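Residues determine shape. We examine one folded chain.
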Amino acid sequence: MPEGFSLSHCTSCNRPILPGTKAVRFNCPNCHQVLIWRDELCRKFSRRYKCVNCGFEGP
C-alpha cells in the first residue's frame, strides 16, 4: 500500500472498505458532520451504525 494511503472502514463492523467494493458513504443524517461508511453486508443485514459526533444510531 502506498505511503500516506489509508482505507476507510465500515462504521458498523469496522472492516476496511477496499477499492471496488460495494459500499456507500454519506454524512450523518442528524448532525451532517461525520462521514458514515457502510459496507455491502452491513447494509444487506441492516446492521446498526452510530455517529461518533452526535450519537445518532441508524440501521
The longest helix spans residues 40-44.
